[in-house]
Amino acid sequence: MSKLAKIPVNIKEGVNVVFENDSIKISGPKGHLSFRIPKEVDVKAAGGRLTISSKKKNNEGLKPFMGLTRAMIANMVTGVSTGFEKKLELSGVGYRAQGTGRDISISVGFSHPVNITADEGLNFEVKDNIITVSGMDKDLVGNMAARIRAIRPPEPYKGKGIRYVQERVRRKIGKTAKALGAK
Q1: Which CATH fold would you assign to the domain 84-164?
Q2: FRET pair for 120, CA 20 to 30 Å: which of 29, 90, 132, 172?
Q3: Full-prediction pTM beyond 0.90?
């Protein structure tokens, strides 16, 4: 059995879990999510906890699926109860973002602003050149944040661009500084 799958998932208060055929549906204050459970993996609910086990014993090829199932269910429980968020920072002269809710307009040095509409279940919030992407599905939040960052990734010489908050950009020395230091 996978090390991660051995840890039971605690069902938080206000979260409902329903099993239908080969899928699990989890609903809570933020909404509802579903996940199709792999055929060889067994998920059981008992005492406010979800436990993941294998239907077959000693199957080494099943470990990754068990860990994946446990991680997906844990993320779904967290998502429908508290939600997820990623923060992106715009750094550069004239770089700014505007808008809240489902639409956002980003000016990052192009001849035109880049307009982005959030996928279903996601929200944007802009405050002091920090864009917050929030939602209940961890995968959607991470993918949307990566798409926004890909518009203008941080460059290594001046550090301008869109980066995650707390991300460190490795800075390079420019040609002139290299030439002066070589003498």
Answers
A1: Outer Surface Protein A; domain 3 (3.90.930)
A2: 90
A3: no
